[in-house]
Fold these 2 entries.
Entry 1:
Amino acid sequence: MALFSSSTRQVPTAAAVPRHVAVIMDGNGRWAKKRLMPRFSGHIKGVGIVRKMVRACLERGIEYLTLFAFSSENWRRPEEEVSLLMQLFVRALEQEVDKLDQNGVRLRIIGDLSHFEPRLQELIRAAEKRTAGNSRLQLTIAANYGGRWDIMQAVNAMLQSQPEKRAGWSEADLEPFLSMHFAPEPDLFIRTGGEERISNFLLWQLAYTELYFTGTLWPEFDRSKFDLAIASYQKRERRFGRTSEQLVGEANA
Ligand code: IPE
Ligand code: IPE
Ligand code: MG
């Protein structure tokens, strides 16, 4: 039995509210620059928006929220910005986990965590353990995450799982080793900040996700903008390779 449904094997049933929303939170730096403030103030403001988004998902009955917080490419930023982002991450974990737990949110961090300092790794482990029993909303933060890294670590783990097997691997063999193995594939992808690219986010899982790009900078994203994205999603016809007529036929069956 698959732990999750894959759009390329088993077609998930369309729901009015997306079950899984994945977001690239972009535009913090430009938001700050517009206000003649340091880039970092945009990141601080951005954490507040995450809080609001979690609340919005709880209210709307969205089951999975996956947020791209730091890409494997973001280490290329000036050392000062990287270090401030790490401090912000630590602070957010220290301050927010109680509230997440009280609200039934299960927190997971995906990405190559081995590059983080021990204190941060410890906080991540503790937060995941603390919220492991929750199931109202599954909140996943991608940190030092890259879609290619994810696929390669999964391939390596899969190969190691059955060293005697030489060939004949399938997609279904790989999927349990991917970082998002516990979740259905995202229904809706949102990128704020105006860029229209995936930037090495969930490459495998976005195969059939509905994409939504908005020029709104992440620090200005709010409930009503989120509802616009959901409304756009609700207008899409998710065909998963089939024809429109087939879908109508099924709906009437
Ligand atoms: C997204 O905002 C946050 C991170 C990548 C950490 P940016 O920092 O990329 O903001 P812009 O794109 O420079 O405006
Ligand atoms: C992508 O944002 C990753 C995150 C939001 C964490 P970037 O702003 O770093 O993306 P690119 O490099 O401009 O595509
Ligand atoms: Mg950016």
Note: The pocket of IPE (ligand 2) is lined by residues 24-26, 68-71, 73-74, 195, 197, 199 (CB under 6 Å).
Entry 2:
Amino acid sequence: MSFLQRIGGELTLEGVGLESIAERFGTPCYVYSRAAIEGAYREFDEGLAGIPHLVCYAVKANSNLAVLDTLRRLGAGFDIVSGGELARVLAAGGRADRVIFSGVGKSRGEMRAALEAGIRCFNVESEPELERLDAIAGALGKRAPVSLRINPDVDARTHPYISTGLAGNKFGIPHDRALAAYLKAASLPNLRVIGIGCHIGSQILDTAPLDEALDRVLELAQSLAAQGMKPEHLDLGGGFGIRYRDEVAPDIRGYCEALAKKLSSAGYQVMLEPGRAIVGPAGMLLTRVEYLKLDKAKRFAVVDASMSELMRPALYGSYHEIVEVSERGAGAPQRFDVVGPVCESTDVLGTDRALAIEPGSLLAILSAGAYGMAMASNYNTRVRPAEVLVDGARALEVRPRETIESLFSSEKRIDDAPAR
Ligand code: LLP
């Protein structure tokens, strides 16, 4: 992350010292760079400049209102997967007509809320969903704009937990049933079919599967055109990978430029749904070393962050680089497993890391802007951390640390609980 620099031995974000952020806001604490988020968004937006397009940020990656606000100001659209995410986008000042709604299990209430808000498009993932949406739109006296999410049966060559474009996944409508599903959609009176959607997985490093999926989408678009149903837009999903360790991330600008060139005369609006590539590299989790536990076969650094704040290593075995914020003081590096206080053996944030640390040292767990805070939990009755947005010289507390009382303030002891 170019916004991350070591100045005089201390790690800084946009030139703001991370030690001072930890002192002001406490640890553990998520810190994001506004400039990094903006820069990453522009790679997509400028890369696609040659054709009509809308970059719909995947809200699930990081749904803090300040992040949404940052992107909204640049003209981003939003890809949502729940009524909760729609409410967040609207609360951040986002425009409903730039929102697309993905997901396999949209409830009636979510459909109603999205129709009433006037979202741009529903990415419908099954035939029963088409029928439900048609009925709800009819009851509201509206026509629902839809695109069908096609499962192209392409292997994204990523972690099996985050691969979504294979025939065996729950996502999307199988490619070979797509035409029939479109004909059905076109026959329903309260739907307006406007696009094709596709998303094959996440943390994709090799863009060849994306190209393959695009070819399948283009084939389908042609078949639809032949039936008089030419789509207005093609939504090619998200999934662009980032560097966590030594991976080579796809060149986003180059990829988008090539896409724009390929589709320059095709007459479609192109949408993308990137999440991780926009916010992942822009954020980190700051944590302090509580104890060094050296009496075991392994050396452990017990820190004040855990799988409750950053679940990815425990859930996927993901790697996040962990670096010392200050280079001063703690002698030669030694190897540690960096672990949290949670009572689970999988509460490991990094294994066998060379670190020069002592109790009190501040560490930065990098590339944690995506699926970090968004997946944080209160497991072990731990408060979720503060979130700070660095914006030039300013450090804005865009979400304060939760308080312990707030975690159970709505719970009741038996005699106080209403019986229903
Ligand atoms: N669009 C759809 C329909 C999606 O399901 C997803 C992610 C995205 C867009 C955004 O994908 P991205 O550009 O962020 O890769 N929790 C996992 C990632 C789960 C991704 C789920 N869907 C992780 O921490 O790696």
Note: The chain has two domains: 4-31+282-407, 48-278.
